[in-house]
Amino acid sequence: MKMSNGLMGRRLLGLAVAGMALVSGGMAFGQQPKPWEITLQEAATPVMENIISFHNLLLVLITLITLFVLALLVIVVVKFNAKANPVPSRTTHNTLIEVAWTLIPVLILVGIAVPSFRLLFQQLDVPKADLTVKVTGKQWYWSYAYPDNGKFEFDSLMAQDKQPRLLGVDNEMVVPVNKVIRVQTTGADVIHAFAVPSFGIKIDSIPGRLNETWFKATKVGMYYGQCSELCGKDHAFMPIAVRVVNDQEFAAWVEAAKKKYATNPANTYASAGGQAAQ
Ligand SMILES: [Cu+2]
After folding, report:
1. How far is the CA of 209 from the centre of ligand 1 (A)?
2. Could you list the residue ranges that cross the membrane (predicted)?
3. d(CA 116, CA 77)
């Protein structure tokens, strides 16, 4: 069968569009990595929205700079090769150009530094929290404690039978929507890292140290992350699943969780000084 290039291109494009529709159709339940994803996960917090716009700004800048340098290289190769330009110029100094190629990059870097520092400050300056969740990384699962809501703590392990594969857990971390959640994190054994891409957070969970970050999810739904510090043989199998719900659902969940986890061995983890029952 013979096919013209144009026809072939259109068929491939059609196939790609159909594939993308298939992927997005299966994505009704929340934020997680998607097949063939080439950009950042969709934002669910103001911080992540700002990270994405900063990323887009940098992408435009780096593209323009790369094209400019490429154009200069092409001009040099075409106009100033030995054949086209047998007698080279003996110029060694040009004050105007030297000042320009020093000053313009400095101005560009300062221009990048301003929004960059603003974003960094927003990430690091924890606003007044509505709720604190203490997240402990363990080999190889997470524990979540709710000191403001009855001091219960529970383990969250990857569930083989749950979807999405390798991201579903038995007990999800649950938080209310549009509330500032302070995340305090530590490691019980080795260094782990608590990361949820659509919240724009990634912070090390270090034994003997309490690290702090925050997020304010503005959309209800399920959000997935993974441990992001190589922590041992099951590093790839300690996913993070966060369910963002409205206030009433959160209050109901807290009441149920208090009862459900009242006898959880995880609550005695610290006092027992040993392995939590899994
Ligand atoms: Cu880990």
Report:
1. 15
2. 54-78, 99-121
3. 36
In a domain? residue 23: no
Reported as a pLDDT band with limits 50, 70 and 90, residue 18 is: very low
Give the Å distance between the CA of 17 and the centre of ligand 1: 37
In a domain, residue 203? The reply is yes
**Residue 204 placed within a domain:** yes
Q: Could you read off the pLDDT of 174-213 as tens digits, one per residue?
A: 999 999 999 999 999 999 999 999 999 999 999 999 999 9
Q: How far is the CA of 182 from the centre of ligand 1 (A)?
A: 20
Number of independent structural domains in the chain: 2
pLDDT score of 2 more than 50: no
Which tokens sit at 55?
Answer: 């990323």
Residue 155 CA to ligand 1 center (angstroms) comes to 14
What is the value of pTM for the model shown?
0.79
In a domain, 62, yes or no: yes
Which residue, among 199, 132, 125, 170, has the nearest Cα to 264 in the 3D structure?
170
Instruction: Give yes or no: residues 262 and 236 share one domain.
Output: yes
Task: Tell me: do 207 and 136 sit in the same domain.
Answer: yes
Question: Which pLDDT score, from 0 to 100, does residue 1 have?
Answer: 40
* Residue 164 CA to ligand 1 centre (angstroms): 19
Cα 202 to averaged position of ligand 1 atoms, centre (Å): 12
Q: In 10 A of CB 23, how many CB atoms?
A: 13
Cα separation of 142 and 189, whole Å? 12
Does 226 share its domain with 194? yes
